[in-house]
Design goal:
By secondary structure, the protein is an alpha+beta fold. Helix content is about 25%, strand content about 30%. The termini are close together.
């Protein structure tokens, strides 16, 4: 597991990238929770009967993001925000990867991002975790956001 803390001076920029930008749009959103004037929870599970064409199981962040933005826009920051992202096709990163997660949590003016990996077949080999962590470090470097690995 990798834990990344976004620099306090970069939180506003990071949140703008997350909420207004498109860098996270291709991630599946496994769930989101916003604690603002009220608590709002998104399951992000798609209702396949609603769609006429084939869809995945979860909504992409690009679909959920406008709803989250409408809830948190205004003069006050939300009390907290939690988003669970996942890679749509984890086997493209590693053949034994069942799921690759990126958790983003904003609470008490701290943004903490953590990774997790689930395997198809159990093994003590940590290469999936190492590949995913390396990918996320590169992803965050491309965002040009100052962060600390905890």
């Amino acid at each position: 597991m990798l834990a990344i803390k976004i620099s306090e001076t970069e939180i506003k920029q990071f949140m703008a990238i997350l909420i207004k930008g498109d860098k996270f749009d291709s991630f599946e959103t496994r769930g989101a929770e916003i604690n603002s004037f009220t608590k709002v929870t998104f399951s992000c599970i798609l209702d396949k009967d609603y769609f006429t064409n084939e869809v995945g199981s979860y909504a992409a962040w690009g679909v959920i993001k406008p709803y989250v933005f409408n809830i948190i826009k205004g003069n006050k920051r939300p009390k907290s925000l939690k988003i669970v992202f996942a890679v749509k096709n984890p086997s493209l990163i590693h053949e034994n990867a069942k799921a690759l997660f990126l958790n983003v949590a904003f609470d008490n003016n701290i943004v903490l991002c953590t990774t997790a990996a689930a395997q198809i077949n159990f093994t003590m080999d940590k290469s999936i975790d190492m590949l995913w962590e390396s990918y996320i470090k590169e992803f965050f470097s491309q965002l040009q956001i100052t962060y600390t690995v905890l």
